[in-house]
Amino acid sequence: MREIDVNTITENVAKMCMEAAYYLPEDVYRGLKKGRETETSPVGQVVLDQIIKNAEIAKNEDRPICQDTGMTIVFLKLGQEVHITGGDLYEAVNAGIAKGYTEGYLRKSVVAEPLFNRVNTKNNTPGVIYTEIVPGDKLDITIAPKGFGSENKSGVKMLVPADGVEGVKKAVMEIMLHASMNPCPPVVVGVGIGGTMDRAAYMSKKALTRSIEERNPMPEYAKLEEELLELINKTGIGPQLGGNTTALAVNIEWGPTHIAGLPVAVTICCHAMRHSHRVL
Description:
By secondary structure, the chain is α/β, with parallel strands linked by helices. The protein has eight helices and ten strands.
């Protein structure tokens, strides 16, 4: 049994929150550069130039890529041979979020209650924490701050098996066309297929943590990712003001589902496709 102290978790989460806010992942940066090379709209080219320059300034000056530094999504893979010492795991994670957002001068965007008394918690906690118990003696942490310009345009469609592949494409495109330029494209699109309504949404968000240069290992889903990307980029929405670079990638995750169901969830992420990963 390997021990990990909660203070180690808190310190790492704090640093990861700042890293995610400041440094665009290299695969996304390369995707933006590639999009700039193939963008046909003069206005779209200018927008992409500005987005790329913004990412470079943020990296060089340790400044947030976007003013909306997001609600903190945390994916934990906790090895079953790990024993957390000194306190509670979730309290340690939330303490790290609070420390990172306060010391990193990141905007605090979380309200404690969503409808009747929307008071800011003033430290961006609590985070949204998903935990998997896995073999081994490591704690795998992914921090993914999620801005709400794109989150607000995400959606779930409950299909039936007879809808098939074409039904999935239609569902995804309905959500994307409704979103239009509002999620600050170019976007990355996470799609969850299967499970239940909530599980599909989880898978769609988890899909956004995969490199945009990596296709789904199952050939049929890899093909569907490419087909959806082509359809989305043919909409003409482009990088905010028109063009052919609406999305940089479509990442699909799938899971078992009921014989009567075919849930499809779409989580859209803007060009500030932030995440940080480390293993303790």
